[in-house]
Write a structure and sequence with these properties.
By secondary structure, the protein is an alpha+beta fold. Among the domains are: 156 residues, Multidrug efflux transporter AcrB transmembrane fold (Up-down Bundle), CATH 1.20.1640; 152 residues, Multidrug efflux transporter AcrB transmembrane domain (Multidrug efflux transporter AcrB transmembrane fold, Up-down Bundle), CATH 1.20.1640.10. Helices cover 62% and strands 7% of the residues. The strands form four sheets. It has a four-stranded antiparallel β-sheet, sandwiched between helices. It has a four-stranded antiparallel β-sheet with strand order 10-11-9-12. Strands 1-8 form a two-stranded parallel sheet. Helix 6 crosses helix 22. It comes from Pseudomarimonas salicorniae. InterPro entries: MMPL_dom (IPR004869), Mycobact_MmpL (IPR050545). It is found in: Cell membrane. This is MMPL family transporter.
């Protein structure tokens, strides 16, 4: 091809890549919702677990600690910070201990008589109103006058105060200057609920920026120290750490690979050309995910670009099989069948993720399959047109000649390979430790000091138990609230017995409509109430007309329809209620538990209270979900393996050769698993995906080694190509194995071990020739 045509093809290729990049950038949204990497929930408990990880109120909470000043300045800063954050629009509510009547919407204040149980034993008659008015008279002469006076005309019985006290948890944080503090008085404490879900790093990062800016504003020169904990803060931190390390290690790995490629091919033209299929793979993968899904998880992108690293092997095989007496087109044609077998087989392995039932893995599969196919096709049909004539035979390199003599010094492969398989199986089967890690929390592992500090802040804030909940199932919200009311005596009994400090049912905030109607019916009519108020105020220095707002509220309550959850949406009280009445099918009510000491007592209570109530253990539910995921993944991989056998049989046309190709790959996977297990590693999602990546690389090695057969020239060229592929892979993933981020370390260590085992075993067990040359 002439130089002009080469330039035109290169330009056309670049334009195509730019179009793919523009398409992906315009359509693709990045998600941080960890639920994308979990299987679909099959039970109510699993649905509640996944909701708590993603959209649930618990995932939106930020725990805030202010320190660096005295108690009173910190209390002032706490109040100022709460006011500043309330106006941001990024937070649903901000609590610092001052929350009281303002939790209830202003236009719904008449409903206090329907929500409060305070009038059940003391109706609004002259006797009760008289006691209340005399008490208010005393309050006005006390230091509490400034707090009581604004409410006197509208609420002389202080029913709203009674409700506020009822809504306060039994165990509150320490208070100093009317705001929350830790026990030592060194940290002012706040809780902020963000509008964004906890695993939306972009939105959480915006909320954290607003929080830090507000702290800087209220500090006014005071060196306040801010600490933030909670799922949102952790998701931002882990993303920043993972992206930072991945970028740093990626730059180091890229520099090392460029140097390696330059040394391997004695120049820079071929390495630069090899970057074209790699870029094609990455952008085709992004374009496919953008087209099919519209959004992509950050983990999918990180994994996807790692998997796309396989695509560099395709041009490397072509470069290493160059021959001075053949054109690049002829060389591409000679390895085309083997290259196609490797690509199709690897794509079939990733296709198992499409039926795994896990959205994140389906995205990953689409990314990898589209990318690998694009890289293989561009290597086979576009790259040869841009390649210069071969200047030498890569197989004649000195290091290749030395490696080619090495196998003769090793014992016969079947003997030591069999021994290796037996030892690996024994290591896995005889070990008392579990092979799998069912702790979903380790999908986003955190440094231990952050975990410890989070536990300290939760203890200081007297937060509810995040592991255990009572779950009540019903037909609708009204039925659930009525059942909650029926359970109240039993829950109070558990508190009195010391099994827990407090139970938080949704009927604490919103009684059933039946109860609200009963309380409404107990309210006196306007004339009766006015007469009772006149009698109560007799001989007291109150003007009758001063209590007009009170009379209006009671009259409004007598005419009001019962409140429902929708009526409280947008208020702090509504947020608390939403966490206890989550959207679920079937409908459920959650009863929060604080200070739980006796789990068995709660289990007995649930067992004897009816089939519609049970105690949810989040840890047990997460482990069951992980086990379900594992079983489905293994089933999907079994299906993929069956398809892989069929594909290899179609390419290789000989079942014995299929076995010779698969034997080193399967044995390498077994040895990798055994080595990791002996090193104290339990497998999770990241290890499984990394092991499939290593097996895909090993499959390529085995196919090319078997293709070379006993032809010494072809064997050395194959050894050159696979050597460059393996060393580059080991450079990349060896660097990842040194990462301080556990996720990156798990990927790097698994792939590096897998590639090493695959290289050793494929070179010894897959050496029979397959004639796919035209």
């Amino acid at each position: 091809m002439s130089a002009r045509r080469r330039a035109a093809l290169a330009l056309l290729w670049a334009v195509l890549l730019a179009a793919l990049a523009a398409f992906a950038a315009a359509r693709l949204q990045t998600s941080g919702d960890l639920r994308l990497f979990m299987p679909a929930a099959q039970t109510t408990d699993q649905r509640l677990l996944l909701d708590s990880l993603g959209e649930g109120p618990g995932s939106r909470l930020l725990l805030i600690a202010l320190s660096g000043a005295g108690a009173e300045p910190l209390a002032d800063a706490s109040r100022a910070l709460r006011e500043a954050l309330d106006g941001q629009g990024l937070f649903r509510r901000v609590l610092n201990g001052e929350q009281g009547a303002e939790a209830f919407p202003e236009d719904s204040l008449p409903y206090r008589y329907l929500l409060s149980d305070g009038l059940a034993a003391r109706p609004l008659d002259a006797e009760h109103l008289g006691r209340a008015l005399r008490a208010r008279l005393q309050d006005l002469g006390s230091p509490a006058a400034s707090l009581i006076e604004p409410w006197l005309a509208r609420d002389p019985t202080l029913e709203m105060l009674h409700l506020a006290e009822r809504w306060q948890p039994a165990r509150e944080p320490e208070r100093r200057f009317d705001v929350w503090f830790d026990k030592a008085g060194e940290n002012a404490l706040l809780v902020a609920e963000t509008e964004a879900a906890g695993f939306d790093p972009e939105a959480q990062q915006a909320a954290l920026r607003a929080l830090r800016a507000a702290v800087d504003e209220v500090a006014e020169g005071t060196p306040l120290r801010l600490e933030v904990s909670g799922p949102g803060a952790f998701s931002v931190l882990m993303r920043e750490r993972t992206e930072g390390e991945a970028t740093r290690l990626g730059l180091l790995a890229s520099a090392a690979m460029i140097l390696l490629m330059g040394l391997a091919y004695r120049g820079w033209r071929l390495p630069l050309l090899g970057a074209l299929p790699l870029a094609t793979a990455a952008l085709a993968g992004l374009g496919c995910v953008a087209w099919l899904f519209g959004s992509v998880h950050g983990i999918t992108l990180a994994f996807g670009f790692t998997l796309i690293g396989i695509a560099l092997d395709y041009p490397v095989h072509l470069f290493s099989h160059r021959h001075a007496e053949r054109s690049a087109w002829q060389d591409a044609r000679r390895i085309g069948r083997t290259l196609a077998a490797g690509v199709v087989s690897t794509c079939l392995a990733y296709a198992s993720f499409l039926v795994s039932g896990v959205a994140g893995l389906a995205q990953l599969a689409a990314f990898a399959i589209a990318g690998l196919l694009a890289a293989a096709l561009s290597t086979r049909w576009l790259l040869p047109a841009l390649m210069p004539a071969a200047a030498g035979d890569p197989g004649r390199s000195a290091w290749v000649m030395r490696l080619d003599r090495l196998p003769g010094a090793l014992p016969q492969a079947p003997r030591w390979a069999t021994l290796l398989a037996v030892l690996a199986l024994a290591a896995l089967l005889a070990s008392p430790r579990s092979l799998w890690d069912d702790n979903l929390g380790r999908l986003t592992p955190l440094p231990q000091d952050l975990v410890q500090r989070d536990a300290e802040l939760r203890a200081a804030l007297r937060a509810s138990d995040v592991r255990h909940l009572l779950v009540l199932e019903g037909t609708d919200t009204e039925a659930l609230l009525q059942r909650c009311e029926a359970l109240l005596p039993g829950l109070d009994g558990l508190v009195e017995a010391g099994a827990l400090d407090d139970a938080e049912p949704p009927c604490r905030y919103l009684p059933s409509q039946r109860t609200q109607l009963e309380r409404r019916a107990a309210l006196p009519d306007a004339e009766t109430l006015r007469a009772a108020l006149e009698a109560a105020a007799h001989n007291l220095p109150f003007r009758q007309e001063a209590f007009a707002p009170f009379l209006e509220d009671v009259a409004a309550a007598r005419e009001a329809a019962p409140l429902g959850p929708a009526d409280l949406e947008g208020s702090p009280l509504g947020s608390r209620l939403a966490s206890l009445l989550p959207a679920s099918e079937p409908p459920v009510a959650l009863i929060g538990l604080s200070g739980l000491r006796d789990v068995s007592a709660l289990q007995r209570f649930a067992a004897t209270s009816g089939d519609d109530l049970h105690l949810l253990d989040m840890k047990a539910a997460s482990e069951a979900l992980a086990a379900t995921y594992r079983e489905r993944m293994l089933l999907a991989l079994s299906l993929a393996f069956a398809l892989l056998l069929l594909a290899l049989a179609a390419f290789l046309r000989d079942l014995r050769r299929v076995g010779q190709v698969l034997a080193p790959v399967l044995l390498a996977a077994l040895c990798t698993a055994a080595a990791l297990h002996l090193g104290g590693v339990a497998f999770n999602l990241f290890h499984l995906v990394a092991l499939i990546l290593a097996s895909g690389l090993g499959l390529d090695y085995a196919l090319f080694f078997q293709r070379a057969g006993r032809d010494p020239d072809e064997r050395r060229r194959t050894l050159h190509g696979i050597g460059v592929c393996a060393v580059s892979t080991l450079l990349v993933f060896g660097l990842l194995a040194s990462s301080s981020v556990p996720v990156l370390r798990a990927i790097g260590l698994t792939v590096a071990l897998g590639v090493a085992f695959n290289l050793l075993l494929a070179s010894q067990l897959a050496a029979e020739r397959i004639d796919d040359r035209p």
